[in-house]
Design goal:
Number of strands: 4
Radius of gyration: 18 Å
Strand content: 35-45%
Shape: globular
CATH topology: Alpha-Beta Plaits
Number of domains: 1
CATH class: Alpha Beta
Number of helices: 3
Order of helices and strands: EHEEHEH
């Protein structure tokens, strides 16, 4: 049974986007040939605190569906990559929350006053 996961990667800010995409392709190939991965590049951001002498990191968020048995090798490959400063893998459960329209939020505040 496949499960949905989300991974947040923080790459070394010295890496260029093509190098990051190459590493991501290598990681996602470990999830199997049928894995559909959605990747969102957030770009360079200042870290809240220094991580291994880095003050800036390149953030990438990836969502995918995979068998849980494939995750140990996927996680191992990420840990061995020197360009990854930090990463986090979480399992998504249920439907994702939907944003409330701005009009509804404003209307609700006016009723309380």
């Amino acid at each position: 049974m496949t499960r949905q996961y989300e991974t947040v990667y923080i790459f070394d800010s010295a890496l260029e986007e093509p190098a990051i995409n190459e590493r991501l392709a290598r990681f996602h190939a470990l999830l199997g040939p049928n894995a559909q991965v959605t990747v969102s590049h957030w770009g360079k951001r200042t870290l809240t605190y220094r991580i291994r002498r880095h003050e800036v990191g390149y953030y990438v968020v990836g969502r995918f569906e995979a068998e849980p048995s494939l995750l140990p090798e996927y996680e191992r490959a990420i840990k061995l990559e020197e360009g990854v400063i930090r990463f986090l893998i979480v399992q998504l459960e249920g439907e994702l929350p939907r944003a409330m329209p701005a009009e509804t939020a404003v209307g609700a505040e006016e009723e309380d006053e």
